[in-house]
Amino acid sequence: MNKQQFGLIGMAVMGQNLVLNIERNGFSVAVYNRTAARTEEFMAGPAKGKNIQATYTVEELADALEKPRKIMLMVKAGGPVDATIAQLKPHLEPGDLIIDGGNSFFGDTERRTEELAEVGINYIGTGVSGGEHGALWGPSIMPGGQIEAWEVMKPIFTAIAAKVNGAPCVTHIGPRGSGHYVKMVHNGIEYGDMQLIAESYDILKRIGGLSAAELHQVFAEWNQGELESYLIEITADIFVKMDEETGQPLVEVILDEAKQKGTGKWTSQSALDLGAPIPTINAAVESRIISGYKAERVAASQMLSGPEIKFVGDRDALVHDVRDALYAAKICSYAQGFALLGAASQEYDYGLNYGEIARIWRGGCIIRAAFLDDIRAAFKRNPDLSNLLMDAEFGQAVQSRQAALRRVIQTAVTNGVPCLALSSALAYFDAYRTARLPANLTQAQRDYFGAHTYRRIDKEGSFHTEWQ
Predict the structure, then answer these.
(1) Which tens digits make up the pLDDT trace of 162-213?
(2) Measured between alpha carbons, how far is 323 from 319 in angstroms, rounded to an integer?
(3) In sequence order, which residues have a C-beta less than 8 Å from that of residue 230 and are 6 or more positions away?
(4) Phi, psi for residue 97 in degrees, rounded to 5
């Protein structure tokens, strides 16, 4: 009996769609799920008549695969990944390969890589972005691990990845946990993008008074220009979906309480560990957290008052300003994300290629956007670029739109509409372009109360002063 070329564990929707994608591209697959009923349902449904073999134990899965075995895990991050690896290990041999395609924490991937290497098993921590549709028709894939393991997986990953101008949206990211790290930062940038769009919507709706139909027109128009992206495209679509029960735009009957799976928070935590400022991504994470305080916010709205929302300006001018503000803030947010990748690459010796990362994010993934071509070009002009704001084109793009960003934030503040992400992007830009920050006073205070010393601008060395 012929052996299958690829194995996959975890038959939730993402796992099923990846299997169908792999099989459609000419590779035979064996599947296993902890709950046999789900495997049976899959085999009787989407997998029927396809080159997909069901197995019902991990031992049976291992026996069904050609060597070296290639087994992808699509199970919940954390303990379930470790448990699945523990079940698999007795049935694997040196040279076999495990691919973790979930949203695992990069530190866990680092540990698992080392543990499996001790018994000769290769391990690829692989970020997969694009949701259920991407998994079926072409995701952006971010594999990190041994280069020889990448070479084994390259034909399959290249075949199933999204394509932009014929180029597959996959590349070898780097060693060990680099793939999951890059996916984590992708998700952090995604948080920032979504929050900036949400705040732009809120300002246009609450201050500008735009209807859902008008918002659809605005976002659809924006998607034809420099803001062209998947998130802007789906935002335009959202505004025309009507609720069958109430007859209102569906978006207006959705509870304003955003959920999160943790990757945005991990991005913030990692940035703090590395000393890399990412205030816009942090603001997006915090905005989701505060949205969860729904009951408290409702109570506070009855007790705490702010300014009356009153806009007397030109609505068309506001729309134009919000578009420019959103683009400028987006650049600042991506500048933070790529700077964080730079800090991680240096700290963990990942050797990241930022232009290639921008390229593979161009298709398949949630933050795919035409704008990423410009980021790739910026790193092609200068592979050692420390910050996107230091690229002449991106720097000019923000400088030429900063007045609009300031006007939009001022309008929001004047009317009491929160804009944590937009204002953090401007603050980042202002701090980054400021030659002298007030940290001199902070250092004086630290020396005053804790004798932490300070450095001077006119001579070398550390100094302490008896301030009293």
Answers:
(1) 999 999 999 999 999 999 999 999 999 999 999 999 999 999 999 999 999 9
(2) 6
(3) 366, 367, 368, 369
(4) -130, 130
Q: 76 catalytic, yes or no? A: no
Q: What is the DSSP string of 377-389?
A: HHHHH-TT-S-GG
Q: Which residues pair with 29 in a beta bridge?
A: 6, 52
The predicted-structure confidence for 95-131, as pLDDT tens digits, reads as follows 999 999 999 999 999 999 999 999 999 999 999 999 8
Closest CA to 324 of 233, 404, 417: 404
> What percent of the residues of the chain are helix, what percent strand, and what percent coil, each to the nearest 5?
55, 10, 35
From the list 356, 30, 339, 305, the residue with the least C-alpha distance to 161 is 356
Residue 326 CB contacts under 8 Å (≥ 6 apart), including other chains: 196, 197, 200, 222, 227, 422
User: What element of type H or E holds 286?
Assistant: helix 279-291
Smallest CA-to-CA distance from 280 within 355, 330, 213, 223 is with 330
Query: pTM score, two decimals?
Result: 0.95
Angle, in degrees to the nearest 10, between helices 420-432 and 315-348: 60
Q: Is 432 within 8 Å of 426 (Cβ atoms)? A: no
Q: Write out the two tokens for 63.
A: 């026996």
Mean pLDDT of 364-372: 92
Which residue in 183, 205, 265, 330 is the catalytic one? 183
Q: Which candidate in 23, 110, 190, 286 is catalytic?
A: 190
Is 183 a residue of the active site? yes
Nearest to 327 by CA among 369, 291, 361: 369
One-letter amino acid at 67 equals: K
